[in-house]
Amino acid sequence: MKSKYVTVVIPVYNERDNIIVLKDAIHQVFSQLNYQYYILFVDDGSSDGTSNILYTISCLDECVGFISLSRNFGHQAALKAGLDMASGDCVISMDGDMQHPPSLLPSLLEQWENGYDVVNTIRQDNSSNHSFKKTSSRLFYKVINSISDFEIKAGSADFRLMSRKVVDIICSLNENDPFFRGLVNWVGFSQTYVVYTAQERFSGSSKYSIKKMFQLAVRGITSFSVRPLYIAIYPGMLISILSLLYIPYALYSYLTGTAQPGWTSLIVTVAFFSGLQLMLLGIIGLYLGKVISESKSRPVYIIKESNLIKKTAVR
Ligand code: UDP
Ligand code: MG
């Protein structure tokens, strides 16, 4: 019987020194398994020569292909590009810095063979050090889980296996601002997860700057919940009640002639409420911005060059 076909999609942004190590590790893993496989790197507009390395490897190694985006579109967009191009019976997505251990691939495939359409991974932290990244990640999952209608497990990453069926659905969604951790959860089907311990990066430093982490968090929250828009309702109600209570006091002060110039309270009130209003306007702006960018329906990414087996050839 012909063995099943697996594509491994790896978005990379300035990961020059990690590519060969990762590719070799994946070859090593698949040499012990009975699958046809293809490693598809997505160069997300790297400027460190990553695309030259990918080009050379893809010419020498028939199991490796790549696409290069016209600029840095961001991890989620690069992942979308990879999924769109990926062929095969299932697709595995993972990071390009060796933090997602290739040794976990057999466990993902085993769960897929057990009948699961999505095999997620959960990162387990053994170390007790509380870095900024870990703390902010924990906070992000707390916030997103408290305001959205489904749960994304803390420690989730874009390291997962998806069956062809799920990949096709995810690719057809055509979201302008995809957040895969939410989308995969949202599509349903039978899902499970395996636990792993994250390694240190093999080389280089994180490509998720604080700005990119913040953008991802905002995208995650605004893609899957409109509850922040309702924030205005609660302080609004509270403030209306408080101002109603304030009226008798103001009348009393006026009638008894004890009314103060009230400069301090005025300034405090104005400052507080302008801040609150600006924040709420900002939240509305975030959602409005999303509506505008969806309505423009620009592509999520643009491919500059590629060297890969044609999608249809291996389906
Ligand atoms: N990445 C990308 N585009 C970006 C930022 C990151 O393709 O704009 C890739 C990066 O090369 C890596 C993966 O996304 O393969 C995860 O990024 P990173 O390891 O820097 O994130 P961290 O593990 O620090 O959260
Ligand atoms: Mg990493």
Key structural traits:
315 residues; alpha/beta; Spore Coat Polysaccharide Biosynthesis Protein SpsA, Chain A; eight-stranded mixed β-sheet; binds uridine-5'-diphosphate; binds magnesium ion
Describe this structure in words.
The protein starts with a strand and ends in an 8-residue tail after the last strand. β2, α2 and β3 form a beta-alpha-beta unit. It contains eleven helices and eight strands. By secondary structure, it is an alpha/beta fold. It has an eight-stranded mixed sheet, sandwiched between helices. Residues 311-315 have low confidence and may be disordered. Uridine-5'-diphosphate binds next to β1 and α3.
End-to-end distance: 16 Å
Bound molecules: uridine-5'-diphosphate, magnesium ion
Report the strand count.
8
Structural class: alpha/beta
Helix content: 40-55%
Kindly report the name of the CATH homologous superfamily of the largest domain: Spore Coat Polysaccharide Biosynthesis Protein SpsA, Chain A
Q: What is the radius of gyration?
A: 25 Å
The total number of structural domains is: 2
